[in-house]
Amino acid sequence: MEGCVKKLLCLVGFVVLVSTIGGVESAGECGKSTTPDNEAYKLAPCASAAQDENASVSQSCCAQVKKIGQNPSCLCAVLLSNTAKMAGVNPQVAVTIPKRCNLANRPVGYKCGPYTLP
Ligand SMILES: *[C@@H]1O[C@H](CO)[C@@H](O)[C@H](O)[C@H]1NC(C)=O
């Protein structure tokens, strides 16, 4: 029984450690007060546009992309985040959203992982 408790504690400690490291790893891209996964929820209005290259991009989506896009590394981290992935975002399609919004100051040519912002 004691061994079992110890094992459980080890497991819990391990999980906490891994999630802490994961958090540190992604910290910074979007500033100290938020994470890419948190920011991904703000792109909820972009859900359909991020899955279908022909879908029209809503004003509210563009407004959010414009805001997050002030920090391209944050935008990329958001588009490639697990949250976005789980929401069905296709990163290859998602990186075209700033262009489809006709954002004037978008970071053209910025590398988002394997993708390049058009
Ligand atoms: C988008 O439109 C193009 C041209 O009409 C078409 O070839 C493509 O298959 C469409 N993509 C999707 C995801 O519907």
Fraction of helical residues: 40-55%
Main sheet summary: 2 strands, antiparallel
Uncertain residue segments: 20-26
CATH class division of one domain: Mainly Alpha
Q: How would you describe the shape?
A: elongated
Protein name: Bifunctional inhibitor/plant lipid transfer protein/seed storage helical domain-containing protein
Keywords: Signal
Pfam families: Tryp_alpha_amyl (PF00234)
GO molecular function: fatty acid binding
Task: Tell me about this structure.
This protein has 118 residues and is mostly helical. It has a domain at 35-116: Plant lipid-transfer and hydrophobic proteins (Hydrophobic Seed Protein), CATH 1.10.110.10. Helices cover 52% and strands 3% of the residues. It has helices at 2-26, 36-40, 59-68, 72-79, 82-86, 91-94, 97-100; strands at 111-112, 115-116. A two-stranded antiparallel ribbon has the order 1-2. A hairpin with a 2-residue loop joins strand 1 (111-112) and strand 2. It is elongated, with a radius of gyration of 18 Å. The termini are far apart. The model is unreliable at 20-26 (pLDDT under 50). Residues 52-54 line the site of 2-acetamido-2-deoxy-beta-D-glucopyranose (NAG).
What's the helix and strand layout?
Layout: H1 2-26, H2 36-40, H3 59-68, H4 72-79, H5 82-86, H6 91-94, H7 97-100, E1 111-112, E2 115-116
The chain binds 2-acetamido-2-deoxy-beta-D-glucopyranose.
Concise structural overview:
The protein is built from seven helices and two strands; from the N terminus they run αααααααββ. It is mainly alpha-helical and 118 residues long.
